[in-house]
Specification:
single chain, mainly alpha, Fatty_acid_hydroxylase, membrane, transmembrane
Length: about 170
Amino acid sequence: MIKELSGLIILVMTIISGLLYSSLIEYCLHRFLLHNSYEQEHVKVHHKVFHGIDSYELEVVNKETVLSSLCEILRNIALYLPVAIVIFMRNKFLGILFLIVCIIYNMWEEFAHYYFHKKNKKLFVFKLKMFKRLKEHHRIHHYMYRYNFGIGTSFWDVIFRTIKKV
């Protein structure tokens, strides 16, 4: 009984660790790589097209201005791999689980970001309070680009005190 319980705890901790790690990667890349200055392409293009006040949602969204490129997604996976490999060396199942959780979080972030900017949504997820809260969190980021860097979660914005509410 104790062995099964400890196994379940380790499983849950691996999932939580994967979510925390992948969301930290997202936060750091968004904050430190994409938002060093107003002169960066991301800030000048993406934040101009999707200004947080009057043009945050559009009927037609150009995927290239909203979604990460294949190279960017592969870069994220490359950043997940060292930790996944360390875990894999101790337990193959947990290492693979960690990597899968990180990739699923990355897919969630891409999905959320795309649909934050697209009008006329019909999926159930758009009615969830959590999605609406994240969408507002990201909308604020679009006109106050030095705040609210988290897309899939606002957790690290709270931790690093970069959260801004209006």
